[in-house]
Amino acid sequence: MSAAERRRVPRVVKRRKLKPLRYAFQAVSFVALVLLVPIGVLAIPAGICSIPLGSFRVDCLFGTAQRILSSPLNVALWLLLTFAAVPLLGSLLLGRFFCGLMCPVGTLLDLFGKVKRVNFLGKLRLNNKHNKYAVAASFAAASTLTGFPAFCTICPIRGLCTAYGSLKGVELALAAAPVVLEFSEKRAWCRYFCPVGAVLGAVGFRKVFGVKIDTEKCINCKACMRVCPTGAITEDSFKTGEVSRTECIMCLRCYDVCMYDALKVGVLPRAHG
Ligand code: SF4
Ligand code: SF4
Ligand code: SF4
After folding, report:
1. What are the residue boundaries of the 4Fe-4S ferredoxin-type domain, all occurrences included (predicted)?
2. Ligand 1 cavity residues, CB under 6 Å
3. Pocket flag, ligand 2, residue 243 (CB < 6 Å)
């Protein structure tokens, strides 16, 4: 075998798995946001979910957007963006990292990991990733029409964090929707419907850090594509090296399964879409 051929033989690389780190992150976030409700997340007077941090607080980005749109000419409401600065900057840098590492609904759905699934969303042709932007736009418009953050009343994240036990009827059914949809496809709610994830993804459309594929090292085994819970890695990814910035939730499952050191985490090229 020539030296050039030897160089082309893919080399299996042993790397430290990041799964324990992800589990730890998700567990701590879940406990902080759900199980410690009395001192954790509160429904604040402005009507959106918020984490109090002394005299400061961190508010939900989509909740803030709805709050502003409920009365867009009220300049005082625009100041609420200060409290949404953390998720805003976080998403500009890291895209939907909240979805992969912190969201309690996402963590709950991950517990259904290997459940038997029947792709009923595909059969109903509802498995379109653009649906979630339509849902976000609809609730943004509804907020302006009704004068309050319309999605917050039925948001599963809020239901899990602040209102479990008190949800009834339609609210309870809608809050349970992500679990029902999980029986169709992994993270189906997050892929196709969640407006919170849609907004975080849209903000992170040009995110700075993320996952990319080194096409020189990739042997096209598709192990990463199979474990990706949001369909962020497609056939095109193996040609271009690009992983969808709007769909990737930074869970790093792909990094863990790639045996050829082809999955990279770092600064993304500026032209990447
Ligand atoms: S898409 Fe929505 S429900 Fe899913 S992890 Fe992100 S914020 Fe949570
Ligand atoms: S896991 Fe993905 S990136 Fe790694 S070699 Fe296989 S196809 Fe390529
Ligand atoms: S591309 Fe990798 S990091 Fe992004 S969602 Fe898929 S498996 Fe997770």
Report:
1. 209-238, 239-268
2. 99, 103, 105-106, 157, 189-190, 194, 196-197
3. no
